[in-house]
Design a protein that fits this description.
The protein is mainly beta. It is built from one helix and 24 strands. It has two domains: about 170 residues, Jelly Rolls (Sandwich); about 120 residues, Sandwich (Jelly Rolls), CATH 2.60.120.10. It is globular. The N and C termini lie far apart (about 50 Å).
Length: about 350
């Protein structure tokens, strides 16, 4: 095995390439304009393929939304979604009867398990100024024994996500936010959903964002799982960074040996990374759109089950619900419990 920490460097596309136990990573950075008073953009939508707009025209897309950007009701089975919102707000609704508005650093972790239908809409609340939205959506696989567990969703509010801020000898700062996985010097990470691969100690799952001031120097520690863990570092903002002594231009995905520490040095501009790591589940993957199972027979069963049951049905009058004009973040769980991060 090579002693150099970098195994591979490749340019970032859409979506970003991932490795087991991760299935998918999409980075959305949309410069939405002013809102029109009905939570959509206050500009013409002419020239967009409404319902399938991934055009990035004028720096943003409507995605599957028709009047409000986002992703109206759609099903999932057999994996988890982890949505980390860096700017802007998302309105969540699901077939469990749960709703949430979250963003500005919050993360939501949904275990689809045996099946869930949910919508993710991007309401443009501000009518007198722009409504930028920036987020990651990460798909984390479930092992076969957990693919049919009950659906579940968890909120990680921004002020409860552990962060580590360190300065190098020149006083240049690096800030690491840990959605999953422990980091020495940071608070204990929030517990992932109970049936998640990330809830297994031996899985060594980490989801971190790393922001470095220009010229900052920080050493990414070795993964606890050693070389059994797979680790990818995504350089998605800034011009370039030096990784293990090698200059890497942004945007790039860098596959690293997980069992060794790696020195990171920012270039002349601020840089940001996303780290995804974990031990592989190591099972066959059969995927058809929003269903991820182990065999094609299980995929066919998922399709039949969805046609028959709609995974519990859609309890909302609209396929793309928006939760009003107030920016207050909240989560209302299926049993009626309400979380208010401001309270």
């Amino acid at each position: 095995m090579s002693t150099h920490p970098i195994l591979q460097i490749q340019p970032l596309g859409f979506p970003w390439a991932t490795v087991d136990p991760f299935l998918f990573c999409a980075y959305h950075d949309d410069a939405y304009p002013q809102g029109n008073g009905a939570f959509g953009p206050k500009v013409s939508l002419a020239g967009r393929d409404i319902g399938q707009d991934f055009s990035r025209k004028d720096g943003w897309s409507m995605y599957h939304g028709e009047t409000v950007p986002g992703f109206p009701a759609h099903p999932h089975r057999g994996f988890e979604t982890v949505t980390v919102v860096r700017r802007g707000l998302i309105d969540h609704s699901d077939s469990l009867g749960a709703t949430a508005r979250f963003g500005e650093g919050d993360a939501q972790w949904v275990t689809a398990g045996s099946g869930i239908v949910h919508s993710e809409m991007f309401p443009l609340l501000r009518e007198s100024e722009a409504n930028p939205l920036e987020l990651f959506q990460i798909w984390l696989n479930l092992p076969a024994k957990n693919k049919m567990v009950p659906a579940h969703f968890t909120m990680f509010w921004s002020d409860r996500i552990p962060r580590l801020a360190v300065k190098d000898e020149q006083g240049r700062e690096t800030v690491v936010s840990t959605v999953a996985g422990p980091l020495e010097g940071a608070d204990t990470p929030l517990p992932p959903p109970p049936d998640s691969w990330a809830a297994q100690a031996e899985a060594d799952v980490a989801i971190w964002t790393i922001r470095m001031q220009p010229g900052a120097r920080w050493t990414l520690p070795a993964a606890r799982g050693g070389e059994g863990t797979r680790r990818t570092l995504y350089l998605f903002k800034g011009a370039e960074a030096r990784i293990a002594g090698e200059v890497v231009k942004a945007p790039s995905a860098i596959a690293l040996q997980a069992g060794v520490p790696v020195e990171l040095v920012a270039g002349d501009t601020e840089v940001e990374f996303l780290l995804l790591q974990g031990r592989p589940i190591g099972e066959p993957v059969a995927q058809y759109g929003p269903f991820v199972m182990n065999t094609q027979a299980e995929i066919m069963q998922a399709m039949q089950d969805y046609r028959r049951t709609q995974f519990g049905g859609w309890p909302w009058a609209d396929s793309a619900p928006v939760h009003g004009g107030e920016p207050r973040r909240f989560a209302r769980h299926p049993g009626g419990e309400v979380e208010d991060p401001a309270g």
